[in-house]
Specification:
about 75% helix, mainly alpha, elongated, single chain
Length: about 240
């Protein structure tokens, strides 16, 4: 009995979506199992080319996931650090009133900046910026030539002010970029968080370093679980070979 071609086309039309669904299921299964070593039954029926593509995708997604975890943690650490800096600065300036009167920043400026250096400094932030520029190096440490010149509270408040000035815009920019990007921190903002965390020794930077080390370990696990993929394909049936 000769099959009706129209019936064959209808049957094929029903089969193709099922095949696509099967392929998607197999890819998702491999992505979920790729870092746990449970991919044996999947990659035996997946072509070597497709398998390599899925492995690469899994590695990229895992790295992005780890990066996001680290960056969000650093963002929280920096918010907490900014709160701490605000409190420290306020406390130190209150103590410095005993030495400089009701306006300790103005008093510090008059004491540690020359009259020429004070010209044009109209606000407390202007004075603090000038003090930081004069007495601190690019890493926020006291320049060697000024060792012993500043009192401990004066030095600390200048350093804390400088740290706050650097961290605050980075945190604000990361918050805004993350909000606009559906809760995902863009790479450039994440890297800026990392660099500032390293520079100022913020607690979260330790987690970042640990996560970075875990990055390398996780990549080794992925490679170990997916090595010799072509060997496992011997005798297997490729989805790409169907149809």
């Amino acid at each position: 009995m000769v099959s009706n071609p129209l019936n064959f086309k209808e049957a094929a039309g029903e089969l193709l979506p099922a095949m696509e669904a099967l392929g998607l299921f197999k890819e998702n299964a491999l992505l979920m199992g790729i870092t746990s070593g449970s991919t044996e039954s999947v990659y035996r029926t997946t072509s070597a080319g497709k398998y390599a593509e899925i492995v690469k995708k899994a590695q990229e997604e895992e790295k992005q996931r780890r990066d996001q975890t680290v960056w969000l943690d650093l963002l929280e650490q920096m918010r907490a650090r900014l709160d701490e800096l605000d409190k420290n600065i306020a406390d130190r300036l209150e103590r410095l009133k005993a030495k400089y009167g009701d306006d300790p920043i103005q008093g510090m400026g008059n004491t540690y900046l020359t009259p020429d250096e004070m010209k044009g400094l109209d606000t407390p932030d202007d004075i603090m910026a000038a003090l930081a520029k004069k007495y601190l190096d690019e890493n926020g440490n006291l320049k060697p030539e000024f060792k012993g010149v500043l009192g401990p509270d004066e030095l600390a408040v200048i350093q804390e002010w400088q740290e706050r000035q650097e961290l605050k815009p980075i945190v604000q920019a990361s918050d805004e970029a993350t909000a606009k990007n559906n809760g995902v921190t863009p790479d450039e903002n994440g890297k800026a968080l990392e660099e500032s965390a390293k520079k100022y020794g913020i607690a979260g930077s330790k987690d970042m370093i640990k996560a970075s080390e875990n990055d390398a370990v996780a990549d080794k696990i992925v490679h170990a679980n997916t090595k010799d993929a072509t060997t496992h394909h011997a005798g297997g049936v490729s989805l790409n070979d169907i149809g």
